[in-house]
Write a structure and sequence with these properties.
Length: 147
């Protein structure tokens, strides 16, 4: 290889190394929320971490999921709707988890804050996708305690 190509190749390798390290650091996300003493986290399906760079507005499917949060043996928490259908499995935002406290399942955000409890009403825009048709919320998810 001619000497004139090597500096460019070395610069390209350095740039790729920096990008790779940044991507790996971003994918690591943060630590999952820490449980309170005496409680254990319950994994729930979560979305991939957001990209390390803000890419601007992202398209969001127009489906609406509304119902009641319920504890779910297989996926931690799900949303039970009307008409007696099976609960909708939700792929919650990255880093979310659930836990049981005093017999009530709570949903925690990535910072470990309680955002909802089983029995709360949930409303979220998004859509369901193959292969399993689980619901992927995008945009704001709202929760309301029962009245």
């Amino acid at each position: 290889m001619p000497r004139s190509v090597r500096p460019g190749l070395m610069a390209m390798r350095a740039a790729i190394s920096v990008l790779l390290c940044g991507t790996l650091a971003a994918c690591a996300g943060g630590a999952p929320p820490s449980p309170e003493p005496g409680t254990a986290l319950i994994p729930v399906p979560t979305q991939s971490p957001p990209p390390p760079l803000e890419l601007g507005p992202v398209a969001c499917p127009a489906a609406l999921l509304e119902g009641t949060l319920v504890a779910h043996e297989e996926v931690g928490m799900a949303v039970e709707g009307e008409f007696g259908r099976a609960p909708a499995i939700v792929v919650w935002p990255h880093g979310w988890a659930a836990r049981d406290v005093d017999g009530v399942r709570e949903l925690l955000d990535a910072d470990g804050r309680v955002v909802a409890r089983e029995g709360d009403f949930v409303s979220a825009g998004g859509g369901s996708f193959p292969p399993n048709d689980w619901f992927h919320p995008c945009g704001e998810i709202t929760f309301r305690a029962p009245r």
